[in-house]
Amino acid sequence: MPVFVKKVLAWGSLAFLIYFMAFRPEGAAQMFKAIGAALMMMAQGLGDFLTSLMT
After folding, report:
1. Can you give the residue range of the structural domain that contains 51?
2. Number of independent structural domains in the chain
3. pLDDT tens string 3-53
4. Neighbouring C-beta atoms of residue 51, cutoff 10 Å
5. b/e sequence 13-44, b meaning 16+ C-beta within 10 Å
């Protein structure tokens, strides 16, 4: 993908994120909570996997 397209997509994503947080803060908070919960579940699964390898 050309560098210009990547820059446009990155700035567009940032603009959407700022707009979303400014005009729908409750929805943005719920989205970030869901993303955080998913990341925690993945980290817990990885930890469980590594623990089971060691035992």
Report:
1. 25-55
2. 1
3. 999 999 999 999 998 999 999 999 999 999 999 999 999 999 999 999 999
4. 9
5. eeeeeeeeeeeeeeebeeeeeeeeeeeeeeee
Q: What is residue 31's DSSP assignment?
A: H
The token duo for 48 is 């469980």
For residues 25 and 17, is the Cβ–Cβ distance under 8 A? no
**Cα(25)–Cα(32) distance, integer angstroms:** 10
- What is the torsion angle, in degrees rounded to the nearest 10, for the CA atoms of residue 44, residue 33, residue 38 and residue 42? -30
In a domain, 6, yes or no: no
Largest CA distance in the chain: 50
